[in-house]
Amino acid sequence: MKFASLVVIALVLSAFAAHFLLGDPGYVLIDFRGHILEMSVPVLVGLFVLLGFALWLGWFVINAPRKLGEAAARLRTGRAGQKLMLGMIQIAEGNFARGEKLLARAAKASDAPLFNYLQAARAAHLQGQDERRDEWLKLAYEHTPEAANAVLLTQAELQLDRKHYEQALATLRRLDENSKDHSYAIALLGGLYYRLEDWKQLAELLPRVKPQGRVNQAMIDKWTARVYAENLRRAASDEALLAEWKKIPKSLKSDLSLLDAWYRSLMRHKMHEKAEKDLAAELKAEWRAPLVRLFGLVEGPDPGKQLKRAEAWLREHDTDADLLLTTARLCLRNGLWGKARSYLETVIALHPTPDAYQVYGRLLNQLGEGDAAGEAYRAGLRMVATEPLPAIPHLKPRS
Asked: How is residue 248 annotated by DSSP?
């Protein structure tokens, strides 16, 4: 449209010029160092036009290779982009091998093949071709070294997906060395340390996790509670245990996993009196099943008093299976076999659990009922076994 407008304007101007020049063509004389050149105005105008055309033609010839190169590059880029799109469609449709081939072809024609290589690596990973996956990632790094973090993160994600935890750990540590405050790498490292149960490394990483904002507070609390719980379990003395408990923030001291570790550690260090007292206070504040079960494991200094407390709770929680099992255990500690049996049979009728069957089997064996004890143990094992269990031999009563 623009070119057509210029042509029309040129024709109009030429028509006007021709009208005036044909009436009086004019006369031009050029004297240059004794050389005289004479011509009419139309001839001079024609010379200027020819000169302009020659200059344009020279410019066109000089720039033609560059223009052709740019056009060819645009064509290649367009084709590469089309192959990239087709490759991604194939992968999205589950045709991983076809998608990988298209991405590889597109990478050869692309000026920035990083994305192609990374997606080809994912396609190879989805086919279970780990070696080819790593080869694509190597090409991505070699072609674009400045994208090392992106390549390492992709590699770590794929290794984690394959559950190659040690390899993923090495990759993430390398990334952490390259970029110390990379938020996503820190989040992945935290999750990996938790999965590997490397509590020492997780404890060292936790101060760096929260400022990044990549991990939600609930997950941070979960990781933190587990680290503190492991510290409680590893405490070598009464003093060390109490010191570790003091370090725990008040906001986490109601966490059930932490409380379980705390009370079990108290019992392991023979601090049963404190465990009984603190558990009773905790249950008075909030009735929670895991703590009720723990109360039955505490060997308080006065078993009778401990049993009376549990039976008092039963007046308000008479159908609580956890409390019934706890009371049965305390009856066993007090030598009250009949009451223990009654409580256990009530538990099994209301809500049978492997723990209840185990305690019941031990009681029956103590009472000399070997066949019934074997069946109780078998019933408990059936609740956790994935395959049918063989018959359990008769058990002899304990002397």
From this structure: S
Euclidean distance between CA atoms 119 and 139, whole angstroms: 12
Instruction: Choose among 328, 329, 388, 341: nearest CA to 368.
Output: 341
CB 306 within 8 A of CB 335: no
Indicate the SS3 state at residue 205.
helix
- Compare 10 and 385 and report the one with higher pLDDT: 385
The answer, yes or no, to whether residue 387 has pLDDT greater than 70, is no
Determine the Cα–Cα distance for residues 347 and 193; give it in Å rounded to an integer. Answer: 39
C-beta of residue 120 within 8 angstroms of C-beta of residue 104: yes
Sorting pLDDT into bands at 50, 70 and 90, what band is 92? confident
> Over 60: is that where the pLDDT of 72 sits?
no
If one counts every other C-beta atom within 10 angstroms of the C-beta of residue 112, the result is 12
Helix (H, G, I), strand (E, B), or coil: what is residue 31? Answer: strand
**Distance in angstroms (rounded) separating the CA atoms of residues 129 and 122:** 10
pTM for the whole structure: 0.70
The residue written with tokens 């091998």 in the block is 97
What is the distance between the alpha carbons of residues 362 and 187, in angstroms, rounded to a whole number? 47
Could you tell me which of 156, 149, 157 has the C-alpha nearest to residue 180?
149
Q: How far apart are CA 331 and CA 339, in angstroms?
A: 7
Phi and psi at residue 28, to the nearest 5°:
-125, 130
Rounded CA gap, 261 and 33, in Å? 111
Domains of the chain: 75-142 (1.25.40), 144-215 (1.25.40.10)
Q: What is the DSSP letter of 39?
A: E
Q: What is the pLDDT of residues 287-296, one digit of tens each?
A: 999 999 999 9
Q: How confident is the model at residue 96 (pLDDT cuts 50, 70, 90)?
A: confident
pLDDT band at 103 (very low <50, low <70, confident <90, very high): confident
**Are 340 and 331 within 8 A, CB to CB?**
yes
**Cα(93)–Cα(75) distance, integer angstroms:** 27
Is 290 within 8 Å of 257 (Cβ atoms)? no
If you search the block for the tokens 């304990």, which residue do you land on? Answer: 398
Give the whole-angstrom CA distance, residue 261 versus residue 85: 54
Instruction: List for the chain the helix, strand, coil content (%; round to 5).
Output: 75, 5, 20
